[in-house]
Design a protein that fits this description.
It contains eight helices and 13 strands. It has helices at 24-31, 94-109, 125-133, 168-176, 208-212, 278-283, 319-323, 333-336; strands spanning 6-11, 14-19, 57-62, 75-76, 86-89, 156-158, 182-185, 192-195, 218-220, 233-238, 249-255, 258-264, 291-295. It binds iron/sulfur cluster and FE2/S2 (inorganic) cluster. Iron/sulfur cluster binds next to helix 4.
Length: 364
């Protein structure tokens, strides 16, 4: 069998040899770091993904050794394969940075910007993308698009206003599960993710659409409003799962001994390492269900990494020295609120936590 030819490609002045057929995005991922363009729709584990969001645009300043002409337009790096001798500019191109800013502005046109109440906040690709590449203002003056609320089942919550039409969830349902039950209805501005005739999504691998969704359009109902993701501690864990396609390797999001959420483990590109079944995700919410391996590796730049430092020292409290006496609190929150009562397990409350759940002597 003949060996696969290697092509030399230079991205932002860094040269690397990659097998022929590699996309520019994957070549950049092999280099790593800032050279890698962001990707909101491409997902290496899903066939045919990519080419929808345009966040991965790059400039090809030299087509190849044989034909060194630059490509006339910016190209989607997730869909363009490298040629031998190709030269690509990502962060070294003004044009790319400007175009990416425009793409972020478009993605945010109809986005509700409800991060303060969105469960995805803190781990949202769109939030990160806007911080890194967006502008602080919008020029959009019209009413944002809205949709009829749709119930797609007991485990997954759909917020269509947050969707960026990346198609990842559709490919996930199509490629991982036995039945495809949802898809994109209508076209253009009216396009929306929906189930056929309002059916619910309930097959045994469908929970993975939550993990692949880059925004808060598909979230876990069993975790909804229970906790902020940066207050929970991610740990890697596994169990013997009976499902033939699930290896039971997951990430638990814990607070103390409570398991608030179970997700698949994600790699450095924010992609699921291996898909998990619904049983592991939605029905194994006790620490005793799992063999805990240890803390998950989280990027230092992520808000989730807050509170994960080991060996840190608590700074001394100096306020009484500064003001010369003990400060007087108007109200001691821990005395008037039941929120911190250890006997209330927030992860076990059905639905979003409500003030009724914390009234002394109430049902919980
Ligand atoms: S619901 Fe999420 S995964 Fe599905 S198309 Fe919209 S943004 Fe993409
Ligand atoms: S990641 Fe390339 S177009 Fe979306």
């Amino acid at each position: 069998m003949s060996e696969q030819p290697q092509f030399k490609v230079t991205i932002d002045n860094i040269t690397i040899d990659v097998p022929a057929g590699t996309t520019i995005l994957n070549a950049a991922r092999m280099i790593g770091g800032d050279v890698t363009p962001p990707a909101m729709c491409y997902y290496s584990k899903l066939k045919d993904s990519g080419g929808k969001c345009r966040t991965c645009l790059v400039e090809v300043s030299k087509g190849s050794e044989k034909d060194p002409r630059p490509m006339p337009k910016l190209v989607a790096s997730c869909r363009t394969t490298v040629m031998d001798g190709m030269e690509v500019k990502n962060i070294t191109s003004e044009k790319v940075l400007d175009a990416r800013k425009g793409v972020v502005e478009f993605l945010l046109l109809n986005h509700p910007l409800d991060c303060p109440v969105c469960d995805q906040a803190g781990e949202c690709d769109l939030q990160n993308l806007s911080y890194e590449h967006g502008s602080e203002v919008t020029r959009y003056e019209f009413k944002r698009r809205t949709f009829e609320k749709e119930d797609i089942g007991p485990f997954i919550s759909l917020h269509m206003t947050r969707c960026i039409m990346c198609f990842r969830c559709v490919y996930t349902a199509e490629q991982l599960t036995e039945r495809r039950e949802h898809g994109i209805l209508e076209r253009g501005d009216h396009a929306q993710i929906s189930t056929l005739l309002g059916k619910s999504l309930d097959n045994d691998f469908i929970g993975n659409v939550i993990d692949v969704c880059p925004v808060g359009a598909l979230t876990d109902k069993t975790f909804r409003f229970k906790n902020r993701v940066w207050f929970t501690k991610p740990v890697d864990a596994h169990r013997d799962c009976n499902h033939e396609k699930c290896n039971g390797k997951v990430r638990l999001w814990m607070r103390g001994e409570e398991v608030f959420r179970v997700t698949a483990r994600k790699d450095q590109w924010g992609e699921v390492e291996e898909f998990i079944c619904n049983e592991c995700r939605f029905h194994k919410k006790e620490a005793k269900d799992w063999v805990i391996e240890g803390p998950s590796v989280i990027k230092r730049s992520s808000v989730i990494a807050q509170g994960h430092y080991v060996g840190t020292m608590k700074p001394p409290v100096l306020i009484d020295k500064v003001i010369g006496k003990q400060p007087k609190f108007l109200m001691e929150i821990h005395n008037v609120s039941d929120v911190n009562k250890p006997e209330i397990e927030l992860s076990k409350i059905d639905g979003p936590a409500h003030s009724d759940d914390f009234v002394q002597g109430s049902k919980k």
